[in-house]
Amino acid sequence: MKKRVLILLMLAAIWTLGSWWYYTCKIKGFCSSNKTLTTAGAIGTASTAIPAVAEATQKEEKVTEINEEAKTESEEKESQTTDNTSSAEPKETIDSDGDGLTDDEEAVLKTNPNKTDSDGDGIPDNEEVGDEPGAAIDTDGDGIINALDEDDDNDTLPTLLEGAINTNPLEKDTDGDSIDDVTEVGDNTGAPLDTDNDKLINAIDPDDDNDGLTTLDEIALKTNPLKKDTDGDGIEDADEIGEKIVNPKDSDEDGIIDALDNNHSPKAEVIVAEEKSPEEPEVEKAAQDEKAAEDEVAVETVKTISTTSIQGSRLYFPFRGAEPKLSKSAANYFAKVAKWLEESTDNKITLTGHTDSIGGKAANKRLGLKRAEIIKKMLIKQGAPKNQIKLDSKGESKPIKSNKTEKGRKKNRRVELTPSAKSATTK
């Protein structure tokens, strides 16, 4: 009985091992072909099958480990490929304030990515930065780029203010007259200086006093660019400078140009015209005592058909003198006029000033009167009663020669002396 049980148990064990082998080797394929497990009915055969099963299990675990490593490596390569593809694609550009500069560029420039005008000067950041954000514009070279600089040209006038008054915020001297904008604007930036009141402020006006000479020329000549008449002699700078700015007039040749010299003594000559009739004078030259010096008044006398013993005369001012001197012959003539005026309060003279056409009409009117006043002072020094001398000015309105030539203009720059007296019957 016991033997039968033992045999059954052995058969069961062999069956079990055979089933495991079949599953492992035939179905799973873990067993090599040269290590086939045999079930030829002996217990010794079963004992050799157990190491084979262990070896097969180890191989299965190793294959699983290799497969997992291969899968992990494949996933890593796929991840790297995805990252490389992602980095090759362009990044999205963001411009929060829409000023043409990306937020990344503004971060580098330190401008405000949320404001189109970081420094609040009225000029957008992209205009002040320029075409190359990597080399942003810095006009005054102070290390602060224009987009962050409230005074781009460093002239102490804020860029915002310069935009309001129409000066150039990138130039210290907008009108190029060698005077900085801040000086020409003045202390009251709310009301910039406009010397000549022509609605063009000095900072952008090439001729601040409107005298016909540019401010730049006046600085070179050392005349006052803010005054039409620098030396205050009643004659505007432009008239005293003459037509050649590079060679301004110096009548007395003392090294001081007329525009700066209020005591220059130019040459002048007096020509007395004989009157053929009150309407048509006839000129007859008389002998002249001496040739007048260049800085003296020369006189020429003639007989006139009139009730007075004094001839009319013309005094020419070729160089617009402020106080011309008298030659001996001129002094004698003025002495006769003064004596004649002293003889009777009815004896009177009229001094009428004339000019050429250079300059404005109003200025020439004043200039003609100024010349008449000069002659009046000469006569008063000779003893003439001032109440018997009348002054008048025709300015440029009564030329006697063409103003197109210097010779003609010289003739037109004159003072005419006209005597008058009451007749005996009138008395």
UniProtKB/TrEMBL annotation:
| InterPro entries in alphabetical order | Bact_OuterMem_StrucFunc, OMP_bac, OmpA-like, OmpA-like_sf, TSP3_bac, TSP_type-3_rpt
- CDD domains for the chain: OmpA_C-like
Q: Where are the transmembrane segments?
A: 5-23
PROSITE patterns noted in UniProt? OMPA_2 (PS51123)
Pfam families xrefs = OmpA, TSP3_bac
Keyword flag Kinase: no
Ranges for the OmpA-like domain?
304-423
> Which superkingdom does the taxonomy of this entry point to?
Bacteria
Localization, per the record, is:
Cell outer membrane; Secreted
Tell me which stretches of the chain form a coiled coil: none
Give positions of region: Disordered.
58-211, 225-256, 273-295, 385-427
Q: Which GO terms describe its molecular function?
A: calcium ion binding
Any single Gene Ontology cellular-component annotation = cell outer membrane
- Is Cell inner membrane among the key words of this record? no
Q: Where is the composition biased (Acidic residues)?
A: 95-106, 119-131
Q: Which UniProt keywords apply?
A: Calcium, Cell outer membrane, Membrane, Secreted, Signal, Transmembrane, Transmembrane helix
Per UniProt, the ranges with Basic and acidic residues bias are: 58-80, 241-250, 273-291, 389-406
The name of this protein is OmpA-like domain-containing protein
Q: What organism is listed for this UniProt entry?
A: Leucothrix mucor
